[in-house]
Amino acid sequence: MLVKRSILFIISVTIFHIGLLVSKHHNYRFSNCPFLVYIPLTSNFIADTKCRYNLLKILELIEEAEDGLTVEYISSSLNLSRKSVRMYLNKLGSNGLIERVGDKYKITEKGRNLIRSLKLSGF
Description:
The chain is mostly helical.
């Protein structure tokens, strides 16, 4: 009986790990988050829910400021490290949702459209 259970355990663990390897190899991601339409899934960075939340909060904060915001202001407002804020800003900027003007960041029209569509979808 013990040998039978051990074999079943080993088989189930093996199948589980094969499933993990296959999903990582093919980069399968299942999410119904509308935010992912605008920022493609290119890494675990965007797949992480906390990351999507922080990206959206930063984008909303920048949208509310007409003159743009600095890294320091965003960092202190959202209680995030400046390093994390810069990483998020780079991701938003590389996808055309914000632009850097001097030491401040401003939302682009694409970013405004994203916020609008997210609010309409109830996100």
